[in-house]
Amino acid sequence: MSTEGIIERLQELGMSGYEAKAYIALVAAGEPLNGYEVAKRSGVPRSTVYETLGKLTATGVTYEVRTPEDTVSYLPLPPKSLLDRLSRHYESTLGSLRESLPGIAAPSRLHLIHNLTGREALLERASDVIVSAQRDLFLSVWPEEVDPLDELVRDAQDQGVSVTVMSFGEDTKPVPHTYIHRLSPPAVVLENLGCRLFVAVGDRQECVIGGFLNGDAWGIYSDNPAVVMVAVEYVRHDIAIQLMAANFPEQDVLSFWNNDPDLTRLRSDHGFAATALRAGRTGASGGGANSGAPVRKRAPGRQGTRRR
């Protein structure tokens, strides 16, 4: 990680930009520095460097050192000690919030459906669903989306969550209940859907449904019971088809799958999944990727966000 990246991370943990720069300069020096030297090495203005060092010293991130000449220099708290201290502080804060914050939440009178745009937004919201799961987790994923979520899924499995995965492609590190979609090659499924369709359902109470294609992504988060139910049944139904196909002669299954006129008709709308997900992104009047806002369908001639 670059120095700029480290500064940004330290700012995320509560330091100001000047404080982060001064601390990094002291860590990199490996010896005590006076205020002038800190300013010169860090880029912190000389007019503010002593104020900055004073704040760091007051919080124990730096220490004053008196030289034989009775001048003041500064040493940093070692990085490991700083990180351990920050970890304890944030764990304590989060523990307090876990106990108190839910107690002030009013029962929800609305079920959310809000749009997600972009790969990072979808994977971040899916991570929330995975981490929150306490009982069961249903996933329908492609290898491209498995990797960034793999550690969270394994943590859920290790904590006793019942994890069920439908994988469109070989999973090199599958959890016990992973089922590979073998009835149609991934390329054929991608052609039919128009995107890598993604589903994550936690505790049958919330879900993320999305599509990924060529670096783009669109989808929704919802805790609407009907949407969650459909998402769960989609994953379970897909797995059931794979299990049935695995227990009958392969040639008979493939012949039926490829030649039955009813199945052909049902698969004739190639790209519908991608089209529907894109339409949800562009047609919504509220509840965007970062808003978290519930949505309600507009009545003709009226203004407002959409809620369901």
UniProtKB/TrEMBL annotation:
Residues 10-79 form the Transcription regulator TrmB N-terminal domain. SUPFAM superfamilies: Winged helix' DNA-binding domain (SSF46785). Residues 295-308 have a biased composition (Basic residues). Pfam families: Regulator_TrmB, TrmB. InterPro entries: TrmB-like, Tscrpt_reg_TrmB_C, Tscrpt_reg_TrmB_N, WH-like_DNA-bd_sf, WH_DNA-bd_sf. Residues 280-308 are annotated as: Disordered. Residues 116-209 form the Transcription regulator TrmB C-terminal domain. This is TrmB family transcriptional regulator. The lineage of its organism: Bacteria, Bacillati, Actinomycetota, Actinomycetes, Streptosporangiales.
